[in-house]
Write a structure and sequence with these properties.
This protein has 683 residues and is mainly alpha-helical. It has a domain of 42 residues. 62% of the residues lie in helices and 1% in strands. It has 33 helices and 2 strands. A two-stranded antiparallel sheet has the order 1-2. Strand 1 and strand 2 form a beta hairpin. The longest helix is centred in the first third of the chain and has 24 residues. The radius of gyration is 40 Å and the shape is elongated.
Length: 683
């Protein structure tokens, strides 16, 4: 490198005539680069003895050559995922799916449901428009590409009678059109390949001869036919839901096409059996399975899963149900069919309907599952907890199994492997609430918060049920400060409290003597839209009016009482709440204790207009407030007259107090004296 003595003067070179700054920078930059390269090529590092010893030990311990990793390829969502990991949940915000318009963000559980349904309806309408008008959505600006947001091909392109046209209709889930095309091919003498026939049977058995658009409900004539079939098979169906589930018709298209096959393989039988089980024809599914065995066909794991789940519906007694399940499992072993996770979950789910047998066989099934190297899912543990909860009464025995399950699952991240996985957390929290086990409830909540396990809470309704149970447990067993801390974290970002949840909170405030928080809770009751629940509002008023508090608290209670009064006013010509004697008395008493006598007198006049009998103690409080100048002598007389109009026994006593404590006129004295004399007459 250039020494300081050899370094040219920047100012000298810049000042020299004919010398440009750019030329100087270019020449000296090249010189510095060349010198740096020479120095780097002849570099030598100074190592201390400690570093040399550490390097020697590393070389000595190393038994493998250094492998240079390949270049890391990041996904297109990696940046978004990294940014999302830096942001935590805002407990004061509404759920993320409702943040498009803050004005329309739901406040109550009913608004939450309405908003969710509206969103889903809007998505369906948008999808319908996009799919039916793909010409307007030819450009894709999304980065990364999102296939589900692009138009789907829903219109038929092939109109001729061919197997390709049949495949197109199957891929587009055109059930009716696919059956018609299949019949046209048979009439034309065209053979349909076995693969296409299998796909057609899968489609028919999945949707049960109906197009997907009609999947939500059958036409009236089909419902009448199903009802007639259920009536004909009376004795085999014992639940009201059987009428809704039985949709498999006799000699439907799936059965007709299956019977037309020259050779029926296990794949076609599997489609038909699974369709029969899905749509309620359990006996026919077992009959077809028997025909398979007689034809020396080997069933697959999907057939056994369906039959195991249908076993409780074809047997009446608990032990007979378990014997049928055991027989199916033995046949799986004989046919060398390896069970999977859904097989064992189907067994555990069927055990829930096997009564006392479930308690003895559930753990054996779980151990067999682990012995085969299959990791249980959350649905497995949910079925076990349900089986033991039904078999045992409330008590410590109910929490023992959950305690063992939570010890096994602690610190584990889950992904959804079974549709019933979303039921585990709600069931576990219900057991904690039933047994009032706060410590176990915290363990369940800790597992929910671990990783992304919160995704397995289920839909919005199931999340509301879970957090409602957790909050109820906190209100029963936890200190009020901790309850309020959780309340701020859960509401409204995760949980919209229902009236019962707010009642639990009011009881928790009463238990720990924190009634000064009631005005704040009333604001939440109003914002959540529960100010039209009469029992909740009356409980709030009862807690505020039950005891006397400091002057500051009484002023806050009086202001809250005036806000509650507005909840009873009419809205659009209808009263939101109906006045009760208790609510009238409580609001009046709260206003009197805060020296708001004019507002309290307005409440007292409501007693007369509604023909409600006021409490004697309330009238005594009015006269006590009058001693300090809050009630005029004229109103004191009216008060005594109101008591006489309702024939209250305290009327003479109130008249005596009014004569002694108020400066009344002669006319007023005569009226009070007459009312006072009613005591002797009544005696």
């Amino acid at each position: 490198m250039v020494s300081p003595s050899q370094k040219p003067s920047v100012l000298t070179n810049m000042a020299a005539p004919g010398r440009h700054v750019g030329h100087y920078i270019q020449r000296n930059g090249r010189l510095l680069r060349n010198n740096f390269e020479q120095l780097w090529s002849h570099r030598s590092f100074v190592c201390t003895p400690a570093l040399q010893q550490q390097a020697a030990e590393a070389n000595k311990d190393s038994t493998e050559s250094v492998v240079i990793p390949r270049k890391k390829t990041w996904s297109k969502e990696a940046v978004l995922e990294a940014l999302a990991a830096t942001v935590s949940r805002d407990p004061t915000a509404h759920p993320y799916q409702f943040q498009d318009d803050s004005f329309l963000s739901p406040r109550t559980s009913m608004e939450f449901k309405l908003y969710s349904l509206s969103q889903e309806s809007g998505r369906s309408a948008a999808k319908y428009f996009v799919n039916n008008n793909p010409k307007f959505f030819t450009k894709d600006f999304a980065e990364p590409h999102i296939p589900c947001l692009m138009p789907e091909t829903v219109s038929l392109l092939l109109e001729e009678t061919s197997e390709e046209a049949l495949r197109e209709r199957i891929s587009l889930r055109k059930v009716t059109a696919a059956v018609e095309m299949y019949d046209q091919l048979l009439q034309a003498g065209t053979a349909v390949s076995i693969e296409t026939t299998r796909e057609l049977l899968d489609l028919l058995c999945l949707y049960c001869d109906r197009d997907p658009d009609q999947e939500g409900g059958a036409p009236p004539e089909e419902e009448e036919a199903a009802a007639a079939e259920v009536k004909r098979r009376k004795g085999r169906f014992r639940r009201a839901s059987d009428l809704l589930r039985f949709t498999w018709k006799e000699n439907c298209n799936a059965e007709r096409i299956f019977n037309l096959l020259p050779e029926r393989d296990a794949r076609c039988c599997s489609a038909l059996i699974r369709g029969m089980v899905k749509h309620g024809a359990y006996a026919k599914a077992f009959s077809l399975y028997t025909d398979m065995l007689n034809s020396r066909l080997t069933a697959d794991v999907h057939i056994f899963n369906a039959l195991v789940s249908a076993a409780p519906d074809v047997r009446d007694k608990y032990n007979e149900r378990w014997e049928l399940i055991t027989e199916l499992l033995k046949q799986m072993s004989q046919q060398k069919v390896r069970p999977n996770l859904l097989t064992f979950n189907s067994v555990l789910k069927a055990l829930r309907r096997c009564g006392y047998v479930a308690k003895t066989q559930a753990l054996c099934t779980l151990n067999e599952m682990k012995a085969m190297g299959i990791d249980p899912s959350l649905a497995s543990f949910d079925h076990i907890l349900a089986a033991f909860s039904k078999a045992a009464p409330l008590g410590q025995g109910n929490t023992d199994k959950l305690q063992a399950v939570m010890s096994e699952l602690a610190g584990t991240s889950f992904t959804c492997k079974d549709p019933d996985d979303v039921l585990f957390f709600s069931t576990a929290m219900r057991i904690c609430v039933d047994n009032k086990d706060l410590e176990l409830g915290y363990k369940v909540q800790s597992l929910v918060e671990h990783g992304e396990n919160w995704r397995l809470l289920g839909d919005s309704y199931q999340q509301t049920v879970y957090y409602g149970r957790f909050f109820s447990l906190l209100c029963m067993m936890e200190h009020i400060d901790v309850v309020l801390k959780w309340y701020k974290q859960l509401v409204p970002s995760l949980y919209y409290p229902n009236p019962q949840g707010l009642k639990d909170l009011l009881q928790a405030l009463d238990t720990d003597g924190r009634l000064d928080m009631l005005p704040t809770i009333w604001k939440d009751i109003h914002s959540l839209g529960h100010d039209n629940k009469a029992d909740l509002v009356e409980e709030l008023l009862t807690l505020m009016a039950r005891d006397r508090h400091s002057a500051e608290v009484q002023q806050a209670f009086a202001a809250c009482a005036l806000e509650v009064k507005r909840a009873f006013l009419t809205e659009r010509g209808r009263p939101r709440l109906e006045w009760s004697t208790a609510s009238l008395s409580n609001i009046t008493a709260l206003l009197l204790r805060a020296d708001k006598t004019p507002q309290a007198w307005e409440m007292l006049q409501l007693f007369q207009s509604m023909n409600r009998v006021p409490d004697e103690a309330l009238l005594e409080d009015f006269l006590s407030a009058g001693a300090g100048g809050g009630v005029s002598p004229g109103r004191a007389v009216e008060l005594v007259q109101m008591s006489a109009a309702f024939c209250l026994p305290a009327t003479p006593r109130l008249a005596t107090r009014a004569l002694a404590e108020f400066q009344v006129t002669e006319d007023q004295r005569a009226v009070l004296s007459a009312l006072e004399a009613t005591e002797e007459t009544s005696d």
